[in-house]
């Protein structure tokens, strides 16, 4: 699975009930051979993907492409990846804690 494919799947995993009341942008800065920026705008219980990212997201996550694919496919626990430094976060840390519920990550 490619990085781009994981973002398409991410929208399908979006949990509308968990997003009630949110109006936030989460950006992923992916490094490595499949590097790129993708942002997800969560508002009105919808999830909109923004390829290329945005200027001022509420939360920015930086992760290597191979680690992102592993998280997105359930092969790597997101919290474990964060605690071991594979995911670096800046911005709204409370929002970061909600990501597994917002996207039904394994």
Automatic annotation (TrEMBL):
Pfam families associated with the record: SCP2
The residue ranges of the SCP2 domain are: 8-103
Report which superkingdom the organism of origin falls in. Answer: Bacteria
Family matches, as InterPro entries? SCP2_sterol-bd_dom, SCP2_sterol-bd_dom_sf
Q: Would you tell me the Gene Ontology cellular component terms?
A: cytosol
Q: Provide the protein name.
A: SCP2 domain-containing protein
Recorded source organism is Tengunoibacter tsumagoiensis
